[in-house]
Write a structure and sequence with these properties.
- By secondary structure, the protein is α+β, with helices and mostly antiparallel strands.
- The chain is built from 23 helices and 20 strands.
- Strands 6-7-8-3-9-10 form a six-stranded mixed beta sheet, with helices on both faces. Strands 2-1-4-5 form a four-stranded antiparallel beta sheet, covered by helices on one side.
- Helix 9 runs antiparallel to helix 10.
- The two termini are about 40 Å apart.
């Protein structure tokens, strides 16, 4: 976390106690009662050696049985009262500690929900999880164990030292001097112990981040055979953690050991000195016994303080990281006088809106447009053109760096965030369902939704019968991310969730791109049916999803490069026309299990510019259809090239093995793009890996069939060789696969 990482690295135990007091302050009455009961308990333990003096000098030495009985009765009575006070203190402190820890966890969790998406894009999930695991555990150990131990030990230390001074000041000075010197040794080690604890926390966070990657990126790890690479990096992280742990543990042990060694020697000195005073007749035997008991109490108290020191040191590092997270600025806040947003009735307007993501990359530049209420609009463009950023700005997940977004002429910053987002029904590329019952998953969009509203929304999208057929109907748990439903069913449930709140604006962000062709057709029909009467904003790279919109905006590199209806844009023959050309000429069956590309589409590809139309007609029939689920490898770097591919639907990622290990993304390909040209003529290995990001259908031309088609046309082959060489240079220049 950026703020946490720049926080001052030097914090001490005093700072930790001050931070903990801020969390204890709401319970100061309960804390005061705990302190009072603590003093009762400590006073008894510290004064007990004085009872030994009285017992020896007034009962044992004079052999007074009556005095023995009175003293014993008094000791038993005080012991019972002290035991009751100790049990009451433990109960109250357990309640106090649990309340403080709950407040701390709640504050962290609530703050996470207020942070912007920029924070999450720039922060490792492992760092956040580490705050809730190792960092909070360190603070919890201090609150539950170390703090009460240190408090009782410190109080006992002060009381015992005071009683020692009353009994025999010369021996007390010797004992206290020894204890101070022993404590000084621990203090000298404290800075090194703090530094090692900070380093240990960082290493633990790095290891948690590595584990998080290993769990969530398993498909990629298996696809690219990264198990050995991941293990090597994990072992490096683990070795660094072991070294940090050894150093931190050793310094923690020394913090405990040095006072213990010092007390051991000074205890012997005090014992010999006291015996000399008894022989010299300067003190009584009972005083020596009491004094030795107090020295043991003093040593035990110091031992208790030093025992708590390592946990306190660990908690300083943990609390610093927790504070770093809590201090992360909240980028998107409601204005002090924010009002509830009424249902939009006129327009949504963007006035010269610009936005750059953290680091200054991507985003939008100088966007101005107006969407009339009830209008259907589409934003189209390739990956990275700014479509999803636009959706985030409309939902106020980000605020523009420049310009303004207005609804019915009012800047959206004047409205509360909750009321603004309540006007939008959002369907994302991924359904993102919680592990809850179907009813609860739907009510998340509108907590007070009635049963009729839920069922009506499900009927509208054709998912009601599916849910009703589950063993528990609407009470059936859907599993993690709705795993008990198919992809198409999950997406229709997500649409129903959006409809439950009866939104004024339906925002569709690549709502069908993660589906196979069959489910895409069903969901597209569903969306067309339920969108009537609402303002509909679709963001898509598939022009077939946008062609019927009232207005189409074409985005390129964060700018609107043209806008108009489908017919107008085709007539202009500019950006939209080029995108349309790339995506047309490819036909898919409704189920997506069969497809073909026509000769005109092949003729537009630089790969086939040297081939005449008659041969292209024959070649178009030679393509075979291949379907891939998401996260599947189509071609792997280094493998033999045996096919040329045209993407019929879906999105694919092009990556290359990096020098430092792992892979580097080069590009994202979509419908109409092609790759693998060099496989047609040359027996060359693949120079990149192509993996599906969504379910995909591709048309593949095997090299053998291609060679058979042009085998009797030497002139064509020569022209193709020249064309392919030029194409190879172009692809190499931009790092794309050939």
């Amino acid at each position: 976390m950026t703020h946490r990482d720049t926080a001052p690295p030097r914090r001490n135990i005093g700072w930790l106690l001050a931070r903990l007091w801020l969390w204890l302050r709401p319970y100061r009455g309960l804390a005061a009662l705990v302190v009072i009961l603590l003093v009762v308990d400590v006073a008894y333990e510290s004064a007990f050696p004085l009872a030994l003096k009285v017992l020896v000098d007034r009962a044992i030495v004079p052999r007074d049985v009556r005095a023995l009985g009175v003293i014993a009765a008094m000791l038993v009575s005080v012991a019972v009262a002290t035991a009751v006070a100790a049990v009451a203190r433990d109960f109250l402190y357990a309640r106090l500690a649990a309340s403080v820890l709950a407040d701390l966890r709640r504050a962290l969790y609530e703050h996470l929900h207020r942070l912007s998406l920029n924070f999450y894009s720039a922060t490792r999930a492992g760092d956040i999880l580490s705050c809730f695991s190792t960092d909070l555990a360190a603070v919890e150990n201090v609150i539950v164990m170390a703090l009460p131990l240190a408090a009782s030990s410190l109080a006992s230390l002060i009381l015992a030292a005071g009683i020692l001074m009353v009994l025999e000041w010369r021996m007390a000075v010797a004992a206290i001097t020894g204890l101070v010197l022993a404590a000084a040794g621990s203090r000298a080690l404290s800075p090194a112990a703090h530094r090692s604890a900070d380093e240990l926390k960082q290493r633990q966070s790095a290891l948690v981040a590595r584990l998080h990657e290993a769990v969530h990126l398993q498909p990629v790890i298996k696809i690219f055979n990264l198990q050995r690479w991941m293990l090597e990096h994990f072992q490096n992280e683990l070795a660094a953690l072991v070294r940090s742990s050894q150093r931190a543990s050793f310094l923690a042990f020394l913090l405990e050991r040095i006072p213990h060694i010092g007390v051991l020697f000074f205890n012997l000195i005090v014992l010999v000195l006291g015996a000399w005073f008894v022989i010299a007749g300067q003190i009584q035997i009972g005083s020596l016994v009491a004094f030795q008991g107090l020295v043991i109490t003093l040593a035990g108290s110091l031992w208790g303080v030093t025992l708590a020191l390592p946990q306190l040191v660990q908690a300083v590092a943990g609390m610093r990281r927790i504070d770093g997270l809590l201090d992360e600025p909240i980028a998107i806040v409601d204005a002090p006088n924010a009002v509830a947003m009424p249902r939009p009735s006129a327009s949504i307007e963007l006035r010269r809106v610009s936005f750059a993501h953290r680091g200054g990359s991507g985003g939008l530049r100088e966007i101005s447009l107006t969407i009339t209420a009830g209008q259907s609009v589409a934003f189209v463009g390739s990956s990275g053109s700014g479509k999803s950023t636009l959706a985030s700005l409309l939902l106020r997940l980000h605020d523009p760096d420049e310009g303004a977004i207005l609804v019915d002429g009012v800047n959206v910053r004047a409205f509360s965030q909750d009321s603004l987002r309540a006007q939008f029904g959002v369907v994302l590329q991924e359904s993102l369902l919680f592990d809850a019952s179907a009813r609860d998953a739907l009510r998340m969009a509108k907590p007070d939704a009635t049963e009729d509203e839920i069922v009506s929304a499900c009927r509208a999208v054709g998912i009601h019968d599916v849910i009703a057929a589950l063993p528990d109907g609407y009470d059936a748990r859907l599993g993690e991310n709705g795993c008990r439903l198919s992809g198409g069913q999950r997406q229709r449930l997500a649409i129903a969730r959006a409809l439950v709140r009866n939104p004024a604006v339906l925002l569709l962000d690549e709502a069908t791109s993660a589906l196979d062709a069959g489910n895409e057709a069903l969901v597209t029909t569903t969306l067309a049916r339920v969108a009537g009467g609402r303002t509909t904003i679709a963001l898509t790279h598939r022009l077939a999803q946008a062609m019927h919109a009232d207005m189409i905006f074409v985005l390129d590199a964060g700018r609107i490069v043209e806008s108009g209806t489908h017919a107008d844009l085709l007539h202009r023959r500019r950006w939209y026309f080029k995108l349309w050309q790339k995506q047309t000429g490819i036909t898919l069956s409704p189920a997506g299990d069969w497809g073909e590309v026509d000769a005109d589409r092949l003729a537009e590809m630089p790969v086939f510019e040297a081939i005449d139309r008659a041969l292209l007609d024959v070649m178009s029939k030679a393509f075979v259809t291949e379907q891939f689920a998401a996260d599947r490898v189509v071609i792997r770097e280094g493998d033999e090239g045996d096919r040329f591919y045209i993407i019929a639907r879906g999105r694919l990622e092009v990556s290359r093995n990096a020098d430092h290990g792992g892979s580097q993304r080069l590009a994202v390909l979509a419908a109409g793009d092609h790759f693998g040209e060099m496989a047609l003529l040359r027996d060359a290995p693949r120079n990149a890996t192509v993996k599906t990001l969504t379910p995909a259908t591709v048309l593949a031309l095997p090299r053998g069939q291609f060679n058979n088609l042009i085998g009797h046309s030497p002139g064509v082959r020569a022209r193709l060789e020249e064309s392919f060489s030029r194409r190879q240079r172009e692809l190499s220049a931009v790092g794309l696969p050939s």
